[in-house]
Amino acid sequence: MNNIASILLLVFLAITFLQSSQDKLFHWKDNLDWLKEHFKNTPLKNQVPLALVNVLILELISGILCTVGSIELALNSGRIYGLYGAIFSSITLIMLLFGQRLAKDYDGARTIVLYFIPSVMAVYWLN
User: Fold this and answer.
1) Which residue ranges does UniProt annotate as crossing the membrane (predicted)?
2) pLDDT tens sequence across 53-94
3) C-alpha torsion sign, points 101, 103, 109, 112
4) Which residues, 6+ apart, have CB-to-CB distance to 108 below 8 Å?
C-alpha cells in the first residue's frame, strides 16, 4: 500500500496515452485533417504527418510503460518501468505543449499542463 499514489498516477497516464494513441490509430484521417488545419500557419505545416507519427509512437511507448510500471509496482514494488513511463509521458506532453504554443492555441496548451502536473509528480515519486 506504500505505492498506491504512484500506481494511481501510472494508471491515469496509461489510460490517457493508450486511449489517445488508439484514437490516432483508428481515426488517423480525421486526426490528420484536423491537425493540418490546426498547424496551417506554423512552421510545422508541412510536417504534420511525420509529427503525428512521432506523437503516436511516444504515446504508445508512454502508455505501455505506464501499464507495465503500474503492474510491476503493485506486484513487487519495482519502479523502473513506471519511472520510464512517467518520463516518456512528460516528454510527450512537452512536445504537445510546444505544438499548441506554436499554433497559438493557448487554451489547448493550458489543458496539457493539467496532464503534465501528475506526470511530473510520477517522475518525482518514482525516482
Assistant:
1) 48-68, 80-102, 108-126
2) 999 999 999 999 999 999 999 999 999 999 999 999 999 999
3) negative
4) 100
CB 65 within 8 A of CB 81: yes
Q: For the chain, what's the residue count?
A: 127
35 pLDDT band, cuts 50/70/90, is very high
User: Contact 28/48 with Cβ under 8 angstroms?
Assistant: no
* Grid cell locating 85: 513511463
Rounded Cα–Cα distance for residues 21 and 78 (Å): 26
**Per-domain residue ranges for the chain?**
4-126
**Does the predicted TM-score (pTM) go above 0.85?**
yes
Question: Is residue 67 packed enough to be buried (19+ CB in 10 Å), middle (13-18) or exposed (0-12)?
Answer: buried
Q: What is the pLDDT of residues 41-60, one digit of tens each?
A: 999 999 999 999 999 999 99
CA distance 111 to 126: 24
